[in-house]
Amino acid sequence: MATPGPSSRILSRGDTAGMLFFVVLGVGLALWAVVQSTVNIVAALPNRDVRVAAPFLDTVAQAPLGPDGAPVSVELGSGVVVAPELPIASLGALVIAQVLFAATVVTVVVLLLILVVGILRGRIFSRRHTTLVSAAGVVSLVGVAGVPFFQNMVANGALAWISDRTYERGLVQTIDLPVLFGLAFIVALAGTVFSVGDRLQRDTEGLV
Asked: Directed axis angle between helix 127-162 and helix 177-207, to 10°?
């Protein structure tokens, strides 16, 4: 009589509770992303007094930080500007950025929840799970790179509109490269771990 393989082991109550908590947290995160993006889009669509987060480079401004609120020169790294209106292209980029943000979060959450369901059924490593982990990682990379790209288009349009195209802020790096490379490393590592785990599990089950 064959001995049950690793895939038939039952998760402990603590493991199951942790997985269920992850499911609830994931659903909440997905709902928050959709609501947040919807609110931002609805607020921007009238195209009046649009609040836009903008990164700056070598930009000096005055802030009331001195004695009795005296102005002091500060160098801006980022800030929020209120544009009376945005160019149509920038408004479209804003919508794309928000939709991409929500779609990225929801897609990653759905993929990982499918993974959790598979684990709750008693199997951790499989080709399907490896595909889910890899897909979630790729989608995350697209979101991390794509959302700031479109947000930068929005900021450029807002600053150009406000300054009548006379403000030059220089080249600003909006994509956090260390985060992007770090995420890419984690994605590659997770995919490798699940791939190796799947192979070892199949080899082990073949020996049983």
From this structure: 170
Write out the DSSP string of 9-43: PPPPHHHHHHHHHHHHHHHHHHHHHHHHHHHHHHH
How far is residue 139 CA from its own chain's centroid?
9
Q: Output the pTM of the full model.
A: 0.79
What six digits make up the tokens of 68? Answer: 């009795």
Cβ-count burial 137-153 (b if 16+ within 10 Å, e if not): bbbbeebbbbbbebbbb
Q: Which amino acid is at 53?
A: A
Q: What percent of the chain has pLDDT over 70?
A: 84
**What DSSP state is assigned to residue 68?**
G
Confidence of residue 8 (pLDDT cuts 50, 70, 90): very low
pLDDT in tens, 19-59: 888 889 889 999 999 999 999 999 999 999 999 988 877 77
